[in-house]
Write a structure and sequence with these properties.
de novo design (two linked rop proteins); 5-stranded mixed β-barrel; 9 helices; 2 domains; binds zinc ion; OB fold (Dihydrolipoamide Acetyltransferase, E2P)
Length: 254
């Protein structure tokens, strides 16, 4: 049966080539691979039906940069992956500590950016974060810096100029409930050390490189992770899977 011209145009339209990084991957009991890709055109969820047994399996791995051909059927809303070509991989991310931080930042990007939301900058920042976590010696510091940079890009920023509770200027104490800053009158915890305070106030506006080059001492980082975890939990819903990956978030005093 010959297809009309318009119908053929429609079918062509439904097949698209996209390039992105696998930030989430799940295999269903039926052997399908469900993936979420972060692409310069936004987040894309897609399924490779029967993918586990086929040639797509090895290319559709977590943190791989892949080029995919997807087909969007007329009735099912989940795009179907027809082909996948590996465009780049960072083998050092397989090291356990680096893997943990890559996983954390991937879940974070997934929570921050919505499907279909266009953000070339988010893609570039995320790709840079993975490269940094792969190559830099201090993977934890890269993950912390890039988490705050991604927050800044999403436009969700902790308040640092005024106390989150009463509005007094220049707060320097942790805010254990909201992950922001409190003044001396409102706070129950001792103030942040100067390095942490400088990071919280300046991380988003400084360049990635400037941040990476002045790391906060390791013993101050648990408090920074806790603040990030609290802030994101309060400001963004549905971050359960991300929260479980944040180091120290559960252990510390809240
Ligand atoms: Zn206050």
């Amino acid at each position: 049966m010959a297809l009309s011209r318009s119908k053929m145009a429609l079918m062509r339209h439904r097949t698209a080539n996209r390039s992105g990084i696998v930030i989430r991957r799940r295999v269903t009991p039926a052997g399908d691979i469900l993936v979420t890709l972060l692409t310069p055109q936004g987040k894309l969820k897609a399924i490779a039906r029967g993918g586990v047994k086929g040639p797509l399996s090895s290319s559709l791995n977590l943190f791989h940069h892949v080029g995919v051909q997807v087909y969007q059927g007329p009735h099912n809303d989940l795009a179907s992956i027809k082909q996948a070509v590996l465009e780049g991989a960072l083998p050092k991310l397989a090291e356990p500590e680096r893997y943990a931080f890559a996983h954390l930042i991937a879940e974070f990007a997934d929570a921050l950016f919505q499907e279909g939301e266009f953000s070339e900058q988010a893609f570039e920042l995320f790709a840079g974060a993975l490269r940094g976590i792969s190559h830099q010696q201090d993977a934890e510091w890269v993950a912390l810096v890039m988490s705050y940079k991604l927050l800044g890009l999403a436009g969700i920023l902790p308040q640092t100029a005024r106390c989150a509770r009463c509005g007094n200027p220049d707060p320097i104490h942790p805010d254990p409930l909201g992950g922001q800053l409190l003044c001396g009158n409102c706070a129950a915890l001792p103030p942040y050390p100067p390095e942490s305070l400088d990071f919280l106030r300046g991380a988003v506006r400084r360049t990635v490189r400037a941040n990476i080059e002045s790391p906060v001492p390791a013993d101050q980082r648990p408090a920074l992770w806790r603040a990030l975890e609290r802030f994101v939990s309060v400001q963004i819903g549905n971050v359960q899977s991300w929260r479980q990956l944040v180091p120290y978030a559960e252990a510390g005093q809240i």
